[in-house]
Amino acid sequence: MEHLSSLTDWTPETMTEVLALAAKLKADPAAYSRAAAQNVLFMIFEKPSLRTRVSFETGIVRMGGHAINYDVSTGPLGAGKESLPDTIKVVSRYADLIVARLFKHSDLTEMIANAGVPVINGLTDYSHPCQIMADLLTIQEHKGGLKGKTLCFLGDGFNNVTHSLLFGCAMAGMNVRVGCPQGKEFEPLPSVVENARKLASAQGGELVVTYDAHEAAADADVVYTDSWMSYHIDPTELDKRVNKFMPYQVTRSIMESAKSDAIFMNCLPAARGYEQTAEVIDGPQSVVFDQAENRLHAQNAVMLRLLSLCD
């Protein structure tokens, strides 16, 4: 039985195969309309969600299956009446697949240890693999491939999306640059950087962490940013974080440092005037809604892979 807690659960070859399946699903969804017939997806979300919940629920239904959304706040798990291991052991007797969107990655690890069915990471404080599968699919569509392309990420490097981008881009043979403020609370985890550098080297790519936004963006094929205020960050930190991250805001000037045909990405939700200007995210180089749509197709491929239903 296979799970997806991080992209590093897979080999680069497996990731490439799942991306190829995602492209097939997007091109001919009717061919997969019964691919997951009679399969039940159990969704357990601690964090708010738009794209993750709607794309997973829509995806399994369009493939002939069914989704159940479990409200932690009103269930025995959230009330402290039932343990996480017991909850997952019970659900594994009913459902065929579990997706979990959690605060702590350690809780996801505990779920996997007690699950009798595959578990998909729908986001934790450590990683967001499904988002990056959608991102790679989007880059592949717009740039004609992945290997040798350069992605620049600007903003909060100590971030689940950043960590998964480092892994995914490295495994795809891309060059990835992170431009972020100096300090352990803003930079990617050293263990992630070390692992991603090894993966990148093996696939012919390169990983750079810099404190200079224009250096990170220079001649990049993709410029990517994410929220400066992730769900776990106290709202009172806003002013301090804005002051820290404003030099890494994606502006027209930053986009001009990248290649003339560079695309702009943000996994959403986006705050115009913060991590990027409105003219960038609403401009012609922005592919953020293609990126959002591709959550559906990439996750459908992930589900079929873990259910062993792909051809």
Describe it for me?
The chain is globular. The protein has 2 domains: 7-128 and 295-306, Rossmann fold; 131-291, Aspartate/ornithine carbamoyltransferase (Rossmann fold), CATH 3.40.50.1370. The chain has 12 helices and 9 strands. The model has no long low-confidence stretch (mean pLDDT 96). The strands form 2 sheets. It has a 5-stranded parallel sheet. Helix 5 (129-143) packs across helix 6 (160-171) and helix 6 (160-171) packs parallel to helix 7 (190-203). With 311 residues, the chain is of the alpha/beta class.
Kindly state the percentage of residues in helix.
40-55%
Instruction: Assign an overall shape.
Output: globular
How much strand content do the residues show?
A: 5-15%
Would you state the CATH class of the largest domain?
Alpha Beta
Question: Spatial order of the strands in the main sheet?
Answer: 7-6-5-8-9
Number of strands: 9
Cα distance, first to last residue?
Answer: 17 Å
The CATH superfamily of the largest domain is Aspartate/ornithine carbamoyltransferase
Radius of gyration: 19 Å
CATH topology of the largest domain: Rossmann fold
Number of domains: 2
What are the defining features of this structure?
311 residues; alpha/beta; Rossmann fold; four-stranded parallel beta sheet
Task: Lay out the secondary structure.
Elements: H1 12-27, E1 40-45, H2 51-62, E2 66-71, H3 84-91, E3 97-101, H4 105-114, E4 119-123, H5 129-143, E5 150-154, H6 160-171, E6 175-179, H7 190-203, E7 207-210, H8 213-217, E8 222-225, H9 238-245, H10 252-257, E9 263-266, H11 278-281, H12 288-306
Parallel strand pairs: 1-2, 1-3, 3-4, 5-6, 5-8, 6-7, 8-9
Helix pairs in contact: 1-12, 2-12, 3-4, 5-6, 5-12, 6-7
